[in-house]
Amino acid sequence: MRTILLIIQKELLQVFRNKAMLPLLTVIPVVQLILLSFAASNEVKDIALSVVDHDHSSYSRLLLQKMTASGYFKLQQYADHHDQAERSLQTDEVDMVLEIPNGFERDLLRQKTADLQLLVNAINGSKGGLAGAYAAQVIQNFNQEIIADVVPMIGTLPATPRLDIQYSNWYNPTLDYKTFMVPGILGTLVTIIVMILTAMNIVREKEIGTIEQLNVTPIKKYQFILGKLLPFLFIGLFDLAIGLVAGKLIFDIPMVGSLGLVFAFCVVNLIVVLGIGLLISTMADTQQQAMFVAWFFMMIFILMSGLFTPIESMPKWAQYFTYPNPIAHFVEVMRRVLLKGSTFADIQWQFAVMTVLAITFSSLAMLTYRKTT
Amino acid sequence: MQTLITTHNLTKRFGDFTAVDAISFEVGKGEIFGFLGANGAGKTTAMRMLTGLSHPTSGEASVAGFDVYRQPEMIKRHIGYMSQKFSLYEDLTILENLRFFGGVYGLSRRQIKEKSAALVEQLGLEEVAKKLTGSLPLGWKQKLAFSLALFHDPQIVFLDEPTGGVDPITRRQFWEMIYAAADRGVTVFVTTHYMDEAEYCDRISIMVDGKIAALDSPAGIKTKLGVQSMNDAFYQLARGAQRSE
Q1: Does residue B243 fall inside a structural domain?
Q2: Which residues of B touch A206 (CB under 8 A)?
Q3: B110 at the A interface (CB within 8 A)?
Q4: How close B100 gets to chain A, by Cα (Å)?
Q5: Which pLDDT score, from 0 to 100, does residue A155 have?
Q6: B97 lies in which domain range?
Q7: Under 8 Å between Cβ of B63 and B157
Q8: Are B101 and A217 a contacting pair at CB < 8 A?
Q9: Is the CB of residue A212 less than 8 Å away from at least one CB of chain B?
Q10: pTM of this structure
Q11: HSE (CB half, 13 Å, CA atoms) of A367?
C-alpha cells in the first residue's frame, strides 16, 4: 500500500512540476469544451438562396418574402435566368436555387396547381436534405395561405381529411444542440486527456532509463500498475468536475440525473481507458510509437462514438464495434443521466461492459509489464 | 569467506548471438570485484542477469543466496544497482528521489529522514538538496546515484561503468566511497574501462567475446601474463577479440 502511495506521489509531483502540463490539464480542456460546443452545431442556418423569378407576380413575391422571413434562407442572388443561377450553384456562391416559372400565379388561380423548381447543393447530404425540407415547409405554408385566396373563387373546399400532428420535444424541449453536445464533448475530452497521458507515461520512463532503476527494486507489478493508474484517474475525475462546472455556468446544461452516478461511471470508464493507455505504454519502445498507436485508437473511438453521428444509424456490423468503445458508452451515459435523468438500472448494460473491459485491460497491462526481460 | 555471488556456466544468447558464454566465478563478502572488457564483450549483459533484469539462457547463478531463475525479486531486495546511464528522476529533487526509492525498499519514514540528512551532509549537498536532480553536475549525479544504490543497506552493490565521463578528482572521490562501502562489508561488483581503476579492485575478471579470459588479483594477472601494467595485460587479452563495436 505504501509503495503504491509513493508511486502516486511521485507521478503527481512530476505532472504538476511540468510547466506545460498544468494548463494542458486545467485550462485547455475548458477552452476546448467551450469552443467545440459552440462550433459543433447541427443546425443549418443562412442557406444562400438564388431566385430565378420568371413570373414577377404578387404570388411569386409573396413566396419569396415567406422564404426570407423564415430565417433559414438568405437571399443571395436575384438571377435573371436559369444559367446564371446554375453557375452560382456550381461556384458555391449559393446553396439552393428556386426557380419560379412564367405563369406561376395564373396557373395557380386557373388550374389550381403550379410547378416550382428547387435545385439543392447536396454534397453534404444532411445539409442538403435539411435545406430541401425547410424549403418544402415554407412552400407548404405558402400553400395553406393561398388556399384561402383561391377557394372562395371556386366556392367549395374539397373535403380532404386532415391529420394534425402535435409535437412535444422531451428531454431537450428547446431543441438546443448545445444541451446535447456539451455532455458528449466533455466525456470525449476527458477520455482523450487520460489516454494520451497514460500512453506516454511508462514508455517515457523507458526512454529516459529510469524504468531500469525501478525494475531492480522489489516493486511488485500490481503496485507499479496501480501506482501509474490512480494518479491519472484522479486527474480525469478532476477534469470531469471542472468540465461539468463550466458546462453548467456557461451553457446551463441540465443535470437531471445523479452526479454521483456520472462520476461512478466515469471511474469505471476511465479505468478502461487507463488500462488501454498503459497497455500501449508497456508494449511500445518509444514515445513516438505510443503516440501513433494511441492516436489510431482515439480516431476510431471518437468517430465511432455517436458523438456526431448516431450509433443507431451505423450499419449493424459497425454497431458491434462500438461495444468495446469507452467513448461511445461515456457519451451515451453522460447524455442519458444528465439530460434524461437515467438511473443505475437504466445504464446497467454500460456498467457491465465497462467493468469487464476495465478488468481485461488492466490485467493485460499488468501482464505485459515485465521487470525481467 | 562467505560467498555472495556464484555463477556456473552462466550463458545469455540473443538469437544466434551469444552475448555471455558460460562464465563461472565466485565473489566473496566485502570484496571489490572488477569486471573488465571491451565494449560489447558482455559485461553489462552479465550484470543484468545477476541483478534480475534479464533471464539467463542457461547455466546457474545465485546472488545473496537466491537463485536468479526462481527468486529474482528476492535478489532485488538485497542488492543495489547503479546503471551506466543516470537513472534517478531528474524532475524530482534530491530529497524526493531519496524518499521515493528509500520508501520502495521499505525504509520507514524516520529512517529515510535520518539517512537522507546524513547523506546530504556527507556529500556536501545541503545547498542543493531541494533542487531538481537534473540541475546537478554529472560528477555529483554519479555520487548521488551511488549513495542511493547503497541507501537501503544492500549486501551487494552492482555498478555499471560508474565513472564514465567523470573528471579524475571526482573519480578518485568515487573510489574512496567504494572503499568505504567495502570496509563496511558491502560486496562491490563494478564494471569499468579504466585500467587504473582495475588496480583498485581486489580481484578482476577480463571478458573477451563473452568469455572470461582471465580472473585473478591485478598483481596475479600481470605476473601470469608477464606484463608490467594492466593496460598491457588488457591489450594482450583483448587483441584476440573477434567482435568489437
Answers
A1: no
A2: none
A3: no
A4: 6
A5: 54
A6: 3-238
A7: no
A8: yes
A9: yes
A10: 0.82
A11: 7
Q: What is the CATH number of the domain that holds B89?
A: 3.40.50.300
Question: What's the DSSP call for residue B242?
Answer: S
Outline where DSSP puts E strands in chain A: 47-53, 73-79, 96-100, 117-120
Structural domains of chain A ordered from first start: 2-40+173-368 (no CATH), 47-154 (3.40.1710.10)
Contact B86 A14 (CB under 8 A): no
Tell me the per-residue pLDDT of B139-191, one tens digit each, with 9 for 90 and over. Answer: 889 999 999 999 999 999 999 988 888 888 888 999 999 999 999 999 999 99
Domain count for chain B, please give it: 1
In a domain, B244, yes or no: no
Q: What is the pLDDT of residues B108-133, one digit of tens each?
A: 999 999 999 999 998 888 888 889 99
Beta bridge partners of A205: none
Q: Please report the pLDDT score of residue A76 as a whole number.
A: 87
Mutate to test the interface with B, among A210, A369, A373 (most CBs of B within 10 A): A210
A22 has a chain B CB within 8 A of its CB? no
What separation in angstroms does the CA of A45 have from each of A10, A48, A73, A247? 52, 9, 7, 24
Taking the CA of residue A360 and the nearest CA in chain B, the distance in Å comes to: 25
Percentage of chain B modeled with pLDDT above 90: 53
The answer to whether position B70 is within a domain reads yes
Q: Which among B125, B84, B78 is positioned nearest to B106, based on CA atoms?
A: B78
Identify whether B40 is part of a domain: yes
Q: Check CB contact of B146 with chain A, cutoff 8 Å.
A: no
Option in B72, B87, B92 nearest A213 (CB) = B87
Collect all residues of chain B within an 8 Å Cβ-Cβ radius of residue A3.
103-104
8 Å CB contact between B174 and B143: yes
